[in-house]
Amino acid sequence: ERNMGASASNIVAATKATLREHILNGKLSTVEILDNREYGTIIDVLVKSFTAPPADPMFSWMVEDDKISEGEYNRRLLLQTRFMMEWVNRPLIHKGILLGVKDKSEIVGVASLLPPGVSHFPIWTSAYQVVSIGMPPSMMYKSEWGPIPQKKLDAYGAVEVAKKAVPKEFGPSWYLQAIGVLKTHHGKGLGGALLRSVCALADHTQHPVYLDTESEWHEELYKHFGFETFRKLELRVEGEDSVRVQPIYIMVRKPQQASAQRAARSG
To answer: Based on the number of CB atoms within 10 Å of its own CB, is 225 exposed (0-12), middle (13-18) or buried (19 or more)?
Structure first.
């Protein structure tokens, strides 16, 4: 485990050096590497980005219930989204890359990235996660929320399985864990700057980059940046025909031959 941690740390250090020297310049100078000590704010930005109306389709699907009030829906949405953002992003403090854009000194957009060859969740990390973050709200409040939210979270496990097929088919790959910009800063090109920095990094290292997204609109958006749909999943709750099916698109962008500097200037 110590060797795995050391290897991940070395990869992260080398990646940050590459970003500073080759990527985060020119038109991408608005993007910066975030300090791990800003983790709490990073999670806040991601949660607000994914829950601002209209909420992210998948996170909304996790808690939607036509029998509860709008206020209760919003409460559950915030609780479940924060848990999931903490769960998938906390390991990236030490073995991932956290990129951001700021308005003055305030973080307003974030992209979290897992380097090629670094495992998502080794067994010891998952155990640490439970201790650090606790149980999912859908499990903690099962008597109040009912069984379906937890069944939906269990169904999401199919996404984690499907994502493992990408490195097996394409080789070591970058994984874009999450990307989000506060709604108050939409329309300023900040999300595009974050995504272009990720693509430029992947091009520079000549590795694919992959992600998962939850709507046809987002699928088309990522295609504009060179991603292709690798697999489409349909998340469903077995035995609950009244629960809508939630699509998930796993998308891959193969590395381009252009240098990182040319990729940055093309934005």
So the answer is: middle
Q: Which residues contact 138 (CB under 8 A, 6 or more apart)?
A: 62, 63, 80, 145, 149, 150, 152, 153
Tokens standing for residue 108: 């307003």
Q: Sign of the C-alpha dihedral, residues 117, 121, 127, 128?
A: positive
Cβ atoms 231, 162 nearer than 8 A: yes
Report pTM: 0.91
Average pLDDT over residues 49-59: 97
Q: What's the rounded Cα separation, in Å, for the pair 178 and 267?
A: 21
**At CA 264, angle to CA 263 and CA 267, rounded to 5?**
90
Distance CA(251)–CA(221), nearest Å, equals 11
For the residues 32-38, what does the mean pLDDT come to? 95
Beta-strand pair 209-213/174-181: parallel
Element (H, E) at 32: strand 31-33
Greater confidence (189 vs 131) lies with: 189
* pLDDT for res 133: 86
- Amino acid at residue number 150: Q
Its sign, for the CA torsion 223, 225, 227, 233, is: negative
Query: Is a pLDDT exceeding 70 seen at residue 235?
Result: yes
CA atoms within 13 A on the CB side of 176: 29
**What's the mean pLDDT when you consider all of the chain?**
91
The whole-number pLDDT of residue 261 equals 45
Give the C-alpha distances (Å, rounded to integers) separating 201 from 87, 91, 130, 164. Answer: 25, 20, 32, 21
